[in-house]
Task: inverse folding
């Protein structure tokens, strides 16, 4: 979900305080979302009863997916009209619901490989986000290309659900990794530009923090799941 406000060319040095404040809040909220997702996923995976409830009824995962999509749409569409508290609550609800969905990875993969993949993802995210923050290169065009590639990636992934092609599966895995690595840098730069626009005050800052945290959270989760295909070890 690419939902950050449009790019603006500004002198970021004039708003260093705003930038630092926004990013500290963005990373804090993003981290909170990741912790909630991980805790919920681990909790569900430790309960055979809850696992059976979720994965023996096909409509439960489908319902969770639909609700998650609705929450993201509501959050991105109404971000400028709702209070920061409500926006944060929707974000937390989304993170918790995604934890329910991702609980299956603890059944499929070993805890050690999940932990390894998480640290690899965190390291990759950190390096790439720093690049997006410090680079002087305008990543706007790259972001547009990545968005088109993301659409193609999603469509090809859906198609491969029917084709069951292992070759396509691995091509999409590495393509997806490249896409989300690029999006981390792009979204980081976009957040920085908006924070430096002079508009990141009061309610506008709260909106930017939540929508920025959501964008980076989704980048992280998708990168993690793709890397798990490579580093994950089956039980």
Result:
């Amino acid at each position: 979900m690419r939902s950050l406000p449009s790019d603006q060319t500004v002198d970021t040095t004039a708003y260093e305080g705003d930038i630092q404040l926004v990013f500290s809040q963005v990373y804090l909220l993003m981290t909170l979302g990741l912790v909630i997702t991980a805790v919920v996923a681990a909790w569900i995976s430790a309960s055979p009863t809850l696992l059976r409830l979720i994965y023996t009824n096909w409509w439960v995962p489908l319902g969770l997916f639909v609700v998650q999509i609705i929450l993201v749409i509501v959050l991105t569409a109404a971000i400028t009209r709702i209070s920061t508290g409500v926006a944060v609550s929707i974000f937390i609800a989304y993170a918790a619901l995604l934890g329910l969905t991702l609980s299956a990875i603890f059944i499929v993969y070993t805890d050690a490989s999940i932990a390894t993949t998480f640290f690899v993802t965190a390291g990759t995210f950190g390096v790439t986000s720093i690049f997006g923050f410090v680079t002087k290169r305008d990543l706007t065009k790259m972001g547009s290309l990545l968005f088109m590639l993301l659409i193609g990636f999603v469509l090809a992934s859906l198609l491969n659900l029917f084709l069951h092609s292992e070759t396509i599966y691995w091509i999409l895995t590495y393509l997806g990794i490249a896409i989300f690595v690029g999006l981390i840098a792009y979204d980081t730069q976009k957040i920085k530009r908006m924070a430096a626009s002079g508009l990141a005050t009061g309610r506008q800052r709260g909106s930017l923090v939540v929508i920025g945290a959501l964008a980076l959270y989704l980048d992280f989760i998708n990168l993690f799941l793709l890397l798990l295909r490579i580093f994950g070890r089956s039980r």
